[in-house]
Amino acid sequence: MRDTAMRNGTSGRCLGGSRRPSALALVVCLWFLAAGCGERPPDISHHGGYSSELISFNYPGNWRIFDEQKSDFPVYAEIQSPWNATLSVLVFRSAGAPRLDEFIAEYRDFFRLKTEIGDEAYTGEPPRLSKATVMGGFETVTEKLKVASGRRDVPCTRTYRRKKEGGYVCFVIEQCSDANLATVAPGFALVTGSVRFGNGPAR
Q1: How much is the pLDDT for 106?
Q2: pTM above 0.70, yes or no
Q3: CA pair distance 3, 128, nearest whole angstrom
């Protein structure tokens, strides 16, 4: 992934692109290495707060903000759990913002490429996308896939969410191995349930 939003090495029609190396690419590499490892429960009672001009949310106290972009659209913040869960919050101007299906297609393109450590992101089994539903005001699609981690195929879940408010559109992407999904679910819920964009603090 590249300099803006997903910075995913593709044309970046929806998400933007740059030639600068990606910090999030390292997250993906670490994610593959950590897939299937034991995850610690998210610290909900001592949560942190993130706030920029257009995005605010709460996140577990033992998770961290890994990367952010405040000065250009789409603005974003990326969060990582102690092991392999990742969550990204992105905000676009509504004019020209991608539909959810367009966003998913471009995001998935990145995971069809080889990562910098040589792992194949997708295994031979095609990923499966759910039908779009509305959850918490977000149009939501869930993807079930397997990724290669060393010599193992690790079942994983990725959830895409989209919401439009005023002149902005927000996307939230959650990803985790299935083995750890139940553990990190409260952390995902904390972030997604507290996201505010445009104006207004996190709940």
Answers
A1: 86
A2: yes
A3: 28
